[in-house]
Amino acid sequence: MSTLANRYKIIRNLGAGGFSKAYLAKDLQRDDHRRCVVKKLAPKSDDPFTLRTARRLFRTEVNVLKKLGNHDRIPQLYVSFEEDRQFYLVEQYIAGQGLSRELTWWHWTEAKTVAFLQDILETLAFVHRKQIIHRDIKPENLIRRDRDQRIVLIDFGSVKQHQPSAQTAIVGTQGYMPPEQLLGKPRLNSDVYAVGMIALRGLTGIDPAKTAFPTDPDTGEFLWQHKTNVSPELAQVLNKMVCQDHRYRYPSAQEALQAVSQLSEVSAPTRRRLLQAAGLSFMGLLGTGMAYPALSQELPNRKSSSPFPTTDKTPKNGTIAEPPPHEGSRAVPPNEKESPLASSTLATAPKRLDKQELLRRYGSYNECRKVATANGIKFSTTPTWDKLVYAFSYSEALQEISQVYLKTYPNPALAGITVELTL
């Protein structure tokens, strides 16, 4: 299968689901040879029930994509056709990375989690207004688009029209399906549950598809807040999203989005300028503010020759704050014994960024600023490109170092050390 319909030249395999296979192809009949995704109906079993279910879901996906029309964060359906008694659909190709890859890097900050929720719930609210349930929202079906870093919702092969009283085939992914969906009775807020589970995975590092969250023996609700550090407001929203009883969840993505939008007015722990750090003095890192993955970064409009800004401010505890270590530098003075906690990861910063790298990631100056704001970076004046470069470099250094550190000290407040960091 090299060319389909004398038009779509297959480039490579993109993967397979329960009922279909996906290929990256290019459209030979267009002058620009536009890339696209070709999905082929290919159930894993040839028993009559599976074949009937696969054909029904495939037809439903075509009809739903037509119904959803041209939404910016949903792949556009180009065409569907039959060839050699095989069924195919062709849809828009989204250049980007699956969210599952991003979730393996480090735990999300509160600001990043809120930004994710706002992004995906905006798209899902549009889907729910059409009375459509996606039924298979999981990291693999979310793409962070390269050109603007927005989340795109893909794979509508499991969608269903909203019919609360109807029994249906059980379709979805273990760990992201709520109890009613496991019983074959999905609802709009079954999708809300799945989004909440992705957020919990981002915050805690626990993949619910592999490891079940512990539950309260009395209520049956998930216990997860001991694994992260978020504001009570965000915790309340997430607990309502992943409530085991669908009657107490947000009815649809629209109500969940309204609740999340209100969180932007709340001062989150990750944006505090007073950082609580546990035992940083043992690593020779006191004053660098690396106990949290993100922080509120007030960046004065001054030039710096280094992407990692320095400070001459004295924290409240009297210790002089030091800049984050440069790549290859040691985290402790050479004449002192290095703590076993000061691993090579702690002692190094990530590769330095530059303007070209930020443009590659985010596409424009304005988008770069939006992403900075979403990640808790604040500027006291309009930033130049130089300020954006070292802001992102510094933020990435904090995230990389803090994740190793927090594995040892999951609750930095226990040390009772307060560090004020000014950039």
β-strand number: 15
- Class inferred from helices and paired strands: alpha+beta
Which CATH architecture of the largest domain?
Orthogonal Bundle
Distance between the termini: 57 Å
Helix % is 25-40%
What gyration radius follows from the Cα positions, in whole Å? 24 Å
List the total number of helices. 11
Largest sheet: spatial strand order = 1-2-3-4-6-5
Indicate the overall shape: globular
Oligomer: single chain
Report the mean per-residue pLDDT as an integer.
75
Instruction: Write down the domain tally.
Output: 3
SSE run: EEEEHEEEHHEEEEHHHHEEHHHEHE
Q: Main beta sheet: strand number and arrangement?
A: 6 strands, antiparallel
What percent of residues are in strands? 15-25%
What would the CATH topology of the largest domain be? Transferase(Phosphotransferase), domain 1
Mind telling me the CATH class of the largest domain? Mainly Alpha
Return residue spans where pLDDT drops below 50 for at least 5 consecutive residues.
Answer: 266-350, 410-423
Would you give an account of this structure?
With 423 residues, the protein is of the alpha+beta class. The chain has three domains: 90 residues, Phosphorylase Kinase, domain 1 (2-Layer Sandwich); 168 residues, Transferase(Phosphotransferase) domain 1 (Transferase(Phosphotransferase), domain 1, Orthogonal Bundle); 149 residues, no CATH class. The protein is 31% helix and 16% strand. It is built from eleven helices and 15 strands. The strands form five sheets. It has a six-stranded antiparallel sheet with strand order 1-2-3-4-6-5, covered by helices on one side. A three-stranded antiparallel sheet has the order 7-9-10. A hairpin with a 3-residue loop joins strand 1 and strand 2.
